[in-house]
Amino acid sequence: MSRPTSRTARIAAWIAIPAALVASGLVVSQASYSAFSSTTTNPTSNWSSGTVVLADDDGGTSANSALFQATNLKPGQTGSNCIAVTSTGTLASTVKLYGTAAATTNNLASNITLSVVQGTGGGFGSCSGFTPLATGSSLYAGTLASFGTSYTNFANGVGTWAPTGTTGSATTTSETRVYQVTYTVNANAANSVQGGTASLGLTWEAQNS
Question: What is the pLDDT of residues 71-91, one digit of tens each?
Fold first, then answer.
């Protein structure tokens, strides 16, 4: 049998290419009509975080909002003030009280005793109506100096208050605890205490349980 000429081979190739393309198109066309499908959907998931929120009724952070601005003190002098702290967080938490920015000269801080009692009633500027808790009302009784050095953060702070948060309620639960703070200058303070100064900031911190 005679071999095909080169011209005959080229003609055969030109015929084969379109034929192959047509066959390929038929396969793709058939495949595009052969898929069935089905889906099921879970609604969009959502996440939101809870809150731990504390506020007090001192009216701000200026010097006028400090519990005490006691000057010209003398041995035996005393004073008292209250402050209401309110929790409006949605999470259950634990509240601790500790000191900040403690400082002294002439050893005055060691010659002032401090008492911190928790209860209800009263508020900043007036302890009228204050009533100590039936149990666990006394949080601290000792010198100003000792409080400032012993209770410096949440981990070693004082207090037993544990706000419950919303406890499943649709609205935020507000809980308030009143703290009565009383100071007394040592009646037998040494003469060297004259002209002394003492300072102490108070911080209430809540952490979720």
Answer: 999 999 999 999 999 999 999
